[in-house]
Structure to design on (566 residues):
RNA sequence: CGGGCUGUAGCGCAGCUUGGUAGCGCGCCUCGUUCGGGACGAGGAGGUCCCGGGUUCAAAUCCCGGCAGCCCGACCA
């Protein structure tokens, strides 16, 4: 590509309102432009990188035996009524955009479980056709509340989404493992470090799932990581253990109730009992929730910790809480729940150190002082119900957990029968002649997001530094002063043609302009190898090369061979 | 969805307090000199000052109402 003809304008100054270095460089170097909040145009250079990422994704998924297809971005809302997900549109869980057309309401697909289930369900009739995994690379639409970090969080995004269909849970598991392995190959190929972490599934549904987290300063999440044993989990899913502390409780004062009018929040409690010198770490924070079966459960954790709801549980809303005769907002506690049919889930830590605790009194404007678990109350359930913090003990090996800031670059799910039982036609005839629902998995990787993450991971103060595998060009050929030296011009043109013939993709800076401008642009654009052809080199019949990543340099003869440049 | 800030040339910004001819730097066009790390000189093009209403002889500037963008938080497949 001759640079004189490329639609490219580099900017000397950082654009306003860029919130990350990688994104600012993508704009300065002319790869992308923002059209509106969270909506981007890929200029020719940016599209080249996007296409290279897509090619790697295709290569690895094809190798894993998946088949590419293309579904429409637009789908009728009736399909989403079938799965029940249309009820959640417009909420933060599923910010789908819809379009009213003449044929009714359409959904601009935020993800494609419904469409693919309907499509593959229609094609698959027999177990003989299974397993099958399909994928597509396509634009997705999400009405993001707050787009951020350039291509990392957008309203329109290029995504690769794959879906597996199997006869049984074992098949699903095998397909899942294949997909995870393929995704890891993709990350290795684009030179990003991704860690699969156990996560919760949110609006997609299903049980087992992993997020592929790339550590980055522009990460929007943290995951818990144990360097000792390799345990990884999203903070929404991470567990931890607590070692039991022995305590002599026989002389602890009996439980007593204290009137605490107007004391609602933990801050209120701390203030109210300040005179008694009871620390927050000796208090219990208790909240009411509904579990996956819709039953009411009180979750109790140490006062200074944040409650983590298990997957499928929801916080009880204020209305339901006020209406319930056994619960009193601000005074939810441990003792006396059973008589109201409420079960008690207690965090590990409260068991490790059974008391005495200060907690709500389960009566209006009342708190309990000196509660001892095991003496005053028995929990129905014990588990890790707090959001992990750095330093908590790894659930596997008790090593100290770290929290790593990172971007979610891909997400894989074992969906099971979640969609195939709700949607019509998603079944097959098994060997024994019975009709069975399809066991599904789904696997999403953010292709345009990867571009943003790559720019953030691979740059320096001068500009972008693309890994070879995704760079827009292999070589960036710069001629110096060719406009006033016809021999140089000819030599540059020849070299450009020759390199292109030998299979290199070459960006040829044939523009007029001072060396400083050309060098600065070359650094900014980040092509892996820069070639400089000047008058001095021409005399000696050589062209200089310099590697962008480490400034390694050398010369090759103008007549070749050029293998050194590969 | 709450709180804060911003909207002026392609890009980055000043001007607004105290109303009166719309500016600077970069970029862009022409000519000349220069040119192996963002050159210099001369000349030039380019604006619904976010939108609508109000006050005023007069509004980029003051007032009211919108819209958009950014930041913090909430949320996040």
């Amino acid at each position: 590509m001759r640079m004189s003809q490329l639609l490219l304008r580099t900017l000397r100054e950082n654009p306003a309102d860029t919130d990350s270095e990688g994104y600012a460089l993508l704009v300065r170097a002319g790869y992308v432009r923002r059209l509106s909040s969270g909506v981007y145009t890929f200029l020719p250079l940016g599209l080249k990188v996007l296409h290279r990422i897509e090619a790697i994704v295709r290569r690895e998924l094809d190798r894993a035996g998946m088949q590419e297809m293309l579904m429409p971005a637009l789908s009728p809302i009736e399909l989403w009524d079938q799965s029940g997900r249309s009820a959640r549109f417009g909420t933060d869980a599923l910010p789908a955009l819809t379009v009213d057309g003449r044929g009714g309401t359409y959904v601009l697909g935020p993800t494609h479980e419904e469409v693919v289930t309907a499509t593959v369900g229609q094609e698959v009739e027999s177990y003989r056709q299974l397993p099958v995994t399909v994928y597509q690379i396509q634009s997705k639409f999400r009405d993001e509340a707050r787009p951020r970090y350039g291509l990392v969080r957008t309203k329109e995004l290029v995504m690769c989404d794959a879906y597996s269909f199997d006869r049984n849970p074992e098949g699903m598991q095998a397909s899942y493992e294949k997909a995870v392995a393929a995704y890891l190959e993709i990350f290795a190929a684009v030179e990003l470090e991704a860690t699969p972490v156990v996560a919760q599934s949110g609006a997609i549904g299903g049980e087992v799932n992993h997020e592929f987290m790339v550590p980055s300063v522009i990460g929007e999440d943290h995951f818990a990581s144990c360097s000792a044993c390799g345990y990884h989990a999203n903070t929404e899913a991470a567990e931890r253990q607590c070692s039991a502390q022995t305590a002599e409780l026989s002389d602890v004062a009996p439980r007593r109730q204290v009137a605490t009018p107007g004391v609602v929040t933990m801050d209120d409690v701390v203030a109210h009992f300040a005179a008694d010198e009871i620390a927050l770490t000796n208090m219990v924070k208790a909240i009411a929730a509904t579990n996956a079966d819709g039953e009411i459960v009180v979750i109790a954790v140490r006062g200074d910790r944040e409650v983590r709801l298990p997957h499928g549980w929801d916080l009880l809303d204020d209305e339901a809480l006020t209406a319930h005769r056994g619960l009193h907002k601000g005074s939810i506690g441990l003792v006396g729940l059973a008589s109201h049919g409420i079960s008690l889930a207690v965090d590990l830590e409260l068991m490790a150190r059974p008391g005495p605790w200060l907690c709500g009194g389960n009566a209006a404007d009342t708190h309990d002082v000196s509660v001892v678990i095991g003496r005053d109350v028995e929990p129905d359930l014990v588990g890790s119900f707090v959001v992990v913090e750095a330093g908590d003990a790894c659930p596997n090996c008790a090593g100290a957990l770290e929290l790593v800031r990172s971007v979610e670059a891909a997400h894989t799910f074992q969906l099971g029968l979640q969609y195939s039982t709700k949607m019509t036609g998603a079944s097959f005839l098994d060997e024994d002649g019975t009709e069975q629902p399809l066991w599904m998995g789904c696997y999403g990787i953010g292709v345009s997001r990867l571009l943003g993450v790559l720019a953030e991971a691979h740059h320096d103060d001068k500009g972008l530094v693309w890994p070879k595998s995704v760079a827009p060009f292999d070589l960036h050929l710069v001629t110096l002063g060719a406009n006033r030296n016809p021999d140089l011009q000819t030599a540059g043109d020849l070299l450009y043609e020759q390199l292109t013939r030998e299979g290199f993709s070459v960006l040829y800076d044939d523009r007029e302009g001072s060396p400083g401008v050309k060098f600065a642009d070359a650094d900014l654009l980040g092509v892996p190898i820069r070639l400089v052809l000047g008058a001095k080199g021409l005399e000696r019949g050589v062209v200089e090369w310099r590697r962008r990543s480490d400034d390694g340099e050398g010369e090759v003869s103008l007549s070749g061979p050029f293998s050194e440049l590969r």
In short: The first helix of chain A runs from residue 21 to 28. The radius of gyration of chain A is 30 Å.
